[in-house]
Amino acid sequence: xxxxxxxxxxxxxxxxxxxxxxxxxxxxxxxxxxxxxxxxxxxxxxxxxxxxxxxxxxxxxxxxxxxxxxxxxxxxxxxxxxxxxxxxxxxxxxxxxxxxxxxxxxxxxxxxxxxxxxxxxxxxxxxxxxxxxxxxxxxxxxxxxxxxxxxxxxxxxxxxxxxxxxxxxxxxxxxxxxxxxxxxxxxxxxxxxxxxxxxxxxxxxxxxxxxxxxxxxxxxxxxxxxxxxxxxxxxxxxxxxxxxxxxxxxxxxxxxxxxxxxxxxxxxxxxxxxxxxxxxxxxxxxxxxxxxxxxxxxxxxxxxxxxxxxxxxxxxxxxxxxxxxxxxxxxxxxxxxxxxxxxxxxxxxxxxxxxxxxxxxxxxxxxxxxxxxxxxxxxxxxxxxxxxxxxxxxxxxxxxxxxxxxxxxxxxxxxxxxxxxxxxxxxxxxxxxxxxxxxxxxxxxxxxxxxxxxxxxxxxxxxxxxxx
Amino acid sequence: xxxxxxxxxxxxxxxxxxxxxxxxxxxxxxxxxxxxxxxxxxxxxxxxx
Lengths: 468, 49
Fold this sequence. Notes:
Chain A is of the alpha/beta class. Helices cover 41% and strands 16% of the residues of chain A. In chain A, strands 12-11-10-9-8-7-4-13-14-15-16 form an 11-stranded mixed β-sheet. A 3-stranded antiparallel β-sheet of chain A has the order 1-2-3. In chain A, strands 5-6 form a two-stranded antiparallel ribbon.
């Protein structure tokens, strides 16, 4: 049994962690639930008898603060939730560790590094300014074809396959991207598989030809921009040091206009240099963009722009500012989506997905320009993580097994975290970078994730409120 | 209910019965590329709705 209660923007929210149920309640119910948690027996399933006994104690403990009839009603409603499995639910109803770790997996997504080269020199680039601690290189069509064939051959019965064109800057190798998409479409017909192609670009080479191609073939395009001009230019300059904002902004505007209703994201990174990042998100929204994602930097703690523990209160406050402003703008008819505040409370992923995480190293692999396989894009260039290549397939089965064991249930720190079924244990690469262990956790990332989950749920509560 | 409004329509425990088909999107592919978030994804298993 685990219940997380919090108040945000005037809403009192009760999250029943094992069932994933979300309730919005009045202060009386919040107090009553807290009292139930104190009086229900620990570590054993709740029974009618123990519920009744706790209920009596709850009523007594609240009698000085609320009218008896109101307390009675609240206790009855709480009882109804318990009986329908949406409050004080038992974790025992969910799959356990062996079930998750022994589930057969297939490869269902590839990150194709079609260019280990870049036309920008972003200061925080985990890809070592596109080179991934190796040499500059472009993927050729033959290697890409082998990668797609590898994906098909290793995808079992799974129909939907995902391929992200990544870099460096993938549009420096647009010709091969087009060839690979055409090849993928041909293979779809032969195999019954369905490719979802996506591409992540810094925007420098965006043009009409790419926009037309993207609208016909790409299910999502991620455009990298950090927000305000001065923030963006500080971290994302050209090789000569000149900022890239003024070059990419008009191109991104034109691209998004042509994109129509199809999916895109403007994706930014915030660092210690722009802890007031809500202004960057809102700045992008002011420019007319409406699908936004701005995320904390992943960096060596020694870097001056790396986020520090002492920054956390300020960063958390920024998420509140952002959420409240999003509500205001929505009411005014100029709403936008923010990736980390999106949450699906009705048709969200099943518990298996929530427990097993991003799939890096098992379901999701990255491919270098010369065809080497890595557990994900963040590990590329760290040779000790090379899993094999597109000719040999995965040869480091030992590493795959290690990645299979990276999940929420295997992480000590996640076991009591209320957000564990939303973040699914976080990023293995972050964990490796910060703790030296795949199964570690990155505490700053955890704090930020918990806050984002709280804000996301609050926004749903406000949405329900507005619909009444 | 007078005091409580429930926003969710499906409990995680129910998804344990029919879930696990694996047809859903890989979380990192969707937009983030640096942080794992699955709560915002949609289930693609028609039998699990």
